[in-house]
Amino acid sequence: MNKIITEKTKQLVDDLKSICANHGLGNDGNEYKIITEVFLYKFMNDKFFYEVRLLDKKYSDSAKIEETLKGLSDNDYEFMLLQLPAGVAKLKREHFLSNLYNSQN
After folding, report:
1. pLDDT per position in the chain (105 positions), as tens?
2. Is this prediction's pTM over 0.85?
């Protein structure tokens, strides 16, 4: 299991490096910053969804977790955020990776 995660992580970093190189940022000091920030944001997003799934069985289906969270009322969403343990980023719905991806260009 750890070997698979390590390989996927290395592949993610390699993909980010190739994207930076394709856009003229290869071997630049900002390449490191970009890769680090993207990687950490992906980690925070994944950790958020993992902790939400641990809260309740209705969030357990990972394919539908975003749709479930988007369908919650504002009060229910805020209540769910209050139940998350300390140290977990409390993301607003507009900060999900899918929303950021869909709002690009």
Report:
1. 788 989 988 998 899 889 888 888 878 788 888 888 888 888 899 899 889 888 876 666 656 788 888 888 999 999 999 999 998 999 998 888 888 888 876
2. no
Question: What is the Cα–Cα distance from 75 to 61, expressed in whole angstroms?
Answer: 22
Q: Which residues contact 81 (CB under 8 A, 6 or more apart)?
A: 90
The string of DSSP codes covering 23-69 is TT-TTSHHHHHHHHHHHHHHHHHHHHHHHHHHH-GGG--TTTHHHHH
Quick one: tokens of 76?
A: 């229910």
Other CB atoms closer than 10 Å to residue 37's CB: what's the count? Answer: 10
CB neighbour list of residue 33: distance below 8 Å, 6 or more residues apart: none
